[in-house]
Amino acid sequence: MKRIRVCVYPAQNECAVEINNALSNCEGIEVFGVTSIRGHNEFNFKNYCFDMPDMESDAFVNAFESFLVKNKIDIVFPTTDGTAVFFAEHQKEFSALITTSDLFSVSLINDKLKTFEFFKESSFCPTIYSSFSHFPCFVKPIDGEGAKGAKLIENENDIPSGIDLEKNVICEYLPGKEVTVDCLTDVQGKLVLVLPRERTRIFSGMCVKGITMDETEEIREIAEAINSKLSFKGLWFFQLKEDSSGKLKLLEISSRCGGTMCLSRAKGYNLPLLTVYTMLGKEVAAVNNGFNVFLDRTLFARYKVDLDYETVYVDYDGTIVVKDSVCLETIRFLYQCKNAGKRIILITRHNEDHDDTVFENMEKHGISKHLFEKIELLSFKQEKHSVITDKKSIFIDNSYSERLKVRENCGIPVFGVDGLDVLTDWRL
Q1: Of 116, 175, 275, 382, which alpha carbon lies 20 to 30 A from 251's?
Q2: Residue 114 burial class via C-beta count within 10 angstroms: exposed 0-12, middle 13-18, buried 19 and up
């Protein structure tokens, strides 16, 4: 079966992370992250190119097309609104399919003022002011994404000094809850999915806390109205906010993947994958699992260490099995090593102080003995460092004293379970 090759550009934002997470473990799909700026996503993409010329450069089109041809890319996902416009303008210059709307639609929705003027006869369009004549009101950049650059103006003292009204739009203040609606349009232009989710906490313009919602008649009607007047193919989304009476009003529309479309995916709707099928001309259908999902994000760390090793020596009790359960951090890391062709050698005294054997305990927990190239069964008289022979290796054990002895006698790096996140490769 031919592998579908997908390129994500630019690959340095949360939208890129979501597309990669949604597609990388799908059989038959290979994902490439491409960017002009080296960033955090080199820890997320297994295939990562960070030396592409800037999109504004004269060299970009030829360089990007060369990348598409060289890597046999089938589909490109733009991850910013500005990038979507660029690819819509230059679509004929690229050999791959681009997951963006037509030039009219994508140019319109990239300009909030034009969007509001286009939908001004619709009941969901907010009131727009030509000046700061009503308070409170809301001002935001015409071409901004999310809530970046947006500001509540409660009175004249809040008006930003020197604000350029040619680049900003002033609209009515919407005090109610904010909703993002993820959508999918099929190859015939039919609206297939309408998936609302409430944005309950925002950080740097991105939803970091939210929950999926059931579709309402009001939301469906707005989605159908937008879909009927614009041209979409695959995923897209729009954002709404309640006015003082609880009526939903439009904030923005986008034809790209949303950074929190993972909420819809968690509910069972993999919109990037359904978009791939849509772009290839296939009819799509989705299963409603019938539950809602709550999301809360926090910061996390990824690491890169200058450590080269071929063998992993690992303890069993308290390391692979902790509190009579398989330790997920350890087992994930061991399978990562197995996939990379590294030797895994188990060192344990389990048989000395337990009622069962280590093999019986492994069978109880569903751990295959074939995970290990060798299993060293020691007595309490034997030191673990005595069976460590490979100098290009690491040692993992829950016991600080055992780690200290191995470090002193073998000189190899040693880790507890708490240190395995430093060694884990999260790239997909």
Answers
A1: 275
A2: middle
Distance, CA of 345 to CA of 132 (rounded, Å): 71
CATH of domain 4-98: 3.40.50.720
**Type and span of the H or E element at 202:** strand 191-203
User: Which amino acid, 327?
Assistant: C
Q: Do domains 4-98 and 311-423 have the same CATH topology?
A: yes
Query: Degrees (nearest 5) of the Cα angle 126, 99, 89?
Result: 80
pLDDT one-digit tens code per residue, 261-309: 999 999 999 999 999 999 999 988 877 888 999 999 888 889 999 999 9
**Can you name the residues that pair with 180 across neighbouring β-strands?**
197, 239
- The C-alpha angle with vertex 166 and arms to 165 and 170, in degrees rounded to 5, equals 40
**For residues 388 and 48, what is the distance between their CA atoms, to the nearest angstrom?**
36
- Provide CB contacts within 8 A for 70, sequence distance 6+: none
Joined tokens for residue 161: 């000094």
DSSP class of residue 343 equals: E
Residue 230: CA atoms inside 13 Å, Cβ hemisphere, count?
A: 31
Output the six-digit token pair for 70: 């060289």
**CATH code of the domain made up of 311-423:** 3.40.50.1000
Residue type, 255: S
The verdict on pTM exceeding 0.85 is: yes
CATH of domain 101-299: 3.30.470.20
What is the DSSP-derived secondary structure letter of residue 391? Answer: S
Q: In the numeric block, which tokens belong to residue 298?
A: 């926090």
Helix and strand totals (H; E) in the chain: 13, 22
- Domain assignments of the chain as residue spans, ordered by start: 4-98, 101-299, 311-423
